[in-house]
Amino acid sequence: MQVKISDVVVTGFALFAMFFGAGNVIFPPYLGMTSGTEWLTGFLCFIFIDVFLSCIGIFTIVYGGGGIKALESVVGKIPGMILNVAAVLCTGVLIAPPRTAATTFEMSIAPFTDKISLFVFSIIFFGIVFAFTIRPTRFVDIIGKFLTPVLIICTFILIIAGILSPIGEIAAPVSQTVAEDGIIAGYQTMDILVVSGFGLVMLNTLRLKGYVERKSQIKAIIGVCIVAGILLSLIYGGLAYLGATSSIVLGNNNLNQAQLIVAITNHLMGHTGMVILGIIVGFACLTTAVGLIGSTACFFEDFTNKKIKYPVWVVINTLISISLCNLGLTTIINVAVPILTTICPPFMITVLLLLFRNQIKNTLVYKGIALVAFLYGLISTIQSYM
């Protein structure tokens, strides 16, 4: 089947929006602020971990035939199952969906009114997510055709405003570990961990569009990843630059990640900018929550051999997300750090090794490298708390 450019663009837009969620809005500006004049170094490390590895991961998952089958083919059934389930639980259930709603509340609702509580908002937010997600055949096209264009336009308006009228001069870095900060920020977005679920969704979407031959699927997913990767890199670079230009003016205000992007936007564009930021955050978090809950439901339906159907998983995930969301954004971020720094390395290296499964036949190689990566992540996590 001939690959259609329109299919690639719409699906690429959807993949971009599914990746571009809560952490993707708040972490690059903060990284830019703490990196100062070395913001490009931090940004490149962030891009490598987040964009490059995630897009490669999507490709390898699709190339391997789907999330569950792909990992199990190189590390074995039980290790592959553990890696898959751990990654999907973190990204699709316990951390990322609640964080999307908490971030939207803190940045799109709280600055404008105190009449809506986080609990009430979480019900409204995940009610909308549920409505978009409950039918698995439609949510990718809804994201790609309708939600993503609004998200892209609003984000570029903010970035262009910051480029044309910078907040201030870029100061020397306040962090002594700029490269490490970029890597950790890349982990915090959790994009590398969603490749199993997102890869499965991309594969199902391509099949529904008529790409049933393996060759056409591979060609299409390459184009999809390129579209998503370019958009993510451009927007991350712009947001990191905005953070770098704020390092003198806002760097000493002890702002957290969400508060910093709010302060930057207010400084650049005032009330109009705050409205635009509210739209950016709302749409970014909504599209990601839809993608996460939908892909997680697809994954667990596949994992249970369709014994528990997709809609049931959507309901379960939505209810859990509402409950955890009310812990608040700061608590969710703090809890996420040790979990992600432990899980990301083995999952990430295993996904990358899928590229070489035709060259490396011995599964002990994959298991050994994954084990070393897990121990490295575990030791790094323990050391960070000593």
From TrEMBL:
One of its GO terms (molecular function) is L-isoleucine transmembrane transporter activity. It is found in: Cell membrane. It holds the Pfam family Branch_AA_trans. Coiled coil: none annotated. The keyword Transmembrane applies. PANTHER family: BRANCHED-CHAIN AMINO ACID PERMEASE BRNQ (PTHR30588:SF0), BRANCHED-CHAIN AMINO ACID TRANSPORT SYSTEM 2 CARRIER PROTEIN (PTHR30588). Component of the transport system for branched-chain amino acids. This is Branched-chain amino acid transport system carrier protein. It comes from Megamonas funiformis.
